[in-house]
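Sample A.
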Amino acid sequence: MAAGFALVVTLARPTTEMDPLVLRSYEMELTTMNISTAKTPSKGLRGLKLAALALGTSLLLAGCAGKPPSEQYAVTQSAVNAAVSAGGTEYAAVEMKSAQDKFKQAELAMQEKKYDEARKYAEQAEWDARVAERKAQAAKAQKAVQDARQGVNELREEGLRQVQPVSQ
């Protein structure tokens, strides 16, 4: 059985002083969204409900923020390793250094239990590493194209030498 969170929002019914067209539109929206409204006996309760909603939302967000970003950390570590393997340190030194620096900052933030900051640095490091990996792959491909062109030119020159008539 999967666990989940439920957020219950109670909206105050609009006043009868509203434009009838707006009132009808409001009721249609609530019907479409399957939200039931509750009458609020006083404006004080309305503020209390809003405060409870704000508190519940902040607790929900705080609960998510308290979890270490271990999955993102592992993905980032893998991306940095892949970039190094692809030749990122040679072909994309700036991006590689940026990725490694941000990864170190993510490690420090994890040790200090600043998980939001660690997640942010880990995500940035992942993307820097992916850019470094792509740049390294592109540079290697460019070098392979240059080598292939050079080989074609050498073959062409050799073929032209064999075709030229020998003068006597």
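Sample B.
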Amino acid sequence: MSLTKSEKAGDVRSLASGAAAAGANAARGRAHDAATIARARAQDAAEAARSAADLARERARDAAAQVVPLSKQVGATAAQSVEHGVHDAREWAAPRIDEAATAVSETVAPKVSAALKATARKVDPAPSKSRRLLGWPAAVVLGVLVAAGAAAAAVVLRKRQPEPPPPYPGEETEDTTASGATAGLDAEANGRVRQS
């Protein structure tokens, strides 16, 4: 019996090793099939990625082609908006600047002018009141004094004149005869002589 058991054990061993070899071959086959399938799927995925990248590239070019004219249009619209905004701002600011200028010239300018004049007076080393020599009352008094002095000088000069010399002997007779002849004549202020 022992022989049979040993034969049986050898048969089982050979069956087991054959089964193990078959299992190993089956496993290798399955692994090979799985690797082939994995390679095929990886290649499919790579091709899908390439086609997706190509598609994305094309769409990016199309988008860029649309963006350039659109950006130009947006830029022109923005420039018009800015120009319109600047015009509106200038239109709004002009009257306010004018009002501010009026307010400054009416309120601040007189104060600044007064301050500058006061500073000029303080800076002047010797303020002289003799710039105007005389006021009008003093000028009138001076004029009266000059006229009185001139009249007094005329009187004094007239008194200093020597008396006219006596008439010469032949002149008397002519004057007496002329005065008798002119008795009826009056002399006017303008020097005309008229008869009375």
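B remarks: The CA atoms of residues 110 and 179 lie 83 Å apart. The radius of gyration is 71 Å.
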